[in-house]
Specification:
five-stranded antiparallel β-sheet, globular, nickel cation binding, metal-binding, 12 strands, amino-acid biosynthesis
Length: 180
Amino acid sequence: MRAYYFDNLPGDQRLPHDYVPSRPVTREALAKMNVLSWTIPVEGYAAEVDEIARARGYKNRDTIDVSREGMGEIYESKIKGFFEEHMHEDEEIRYILGGSGFFDVRETPSDDWIRVAMEPGDLLVLPAGIYHRFTLDETDRILALRLFQDEPKWVPHPRSEATDANVHRLGYLRTIGVGA
């Protein structure tokens, strides 16, 4: 996993969009945003991922193949939706089994994007209430294990005045020391 500030230049969202020179973001800086990460080799990953799942109360899981082959006719609409800025009322947990892609998270209060480049063996936890988005990179494929605390669900709430006032968004801001 490699994290850095997104350059905000126009162009293909699947490109790295890294400043020159790069402006890296450490795991410690992400942790202050309650964005947690681990690197776990894919070969023999089950025991370590199971331990994290137990410790964090994840009870369910599935695998998603985000690719033209894996999603068929809904691929283009899903990729477009994944890249729209949104938040969830639950943690979003992904362990990358194959392929690669990017999670972008909003830094608060600066509102800058931080891009997290994900590869096989990377596990990322995005807290409930954080604004984020996802895109593939130029490989156009990622195979991810998704973990859930309850029944599998993925409900995006696009950024708006309503989500700015959402109880999960406000709770997130309090946990990182921003706002009331």
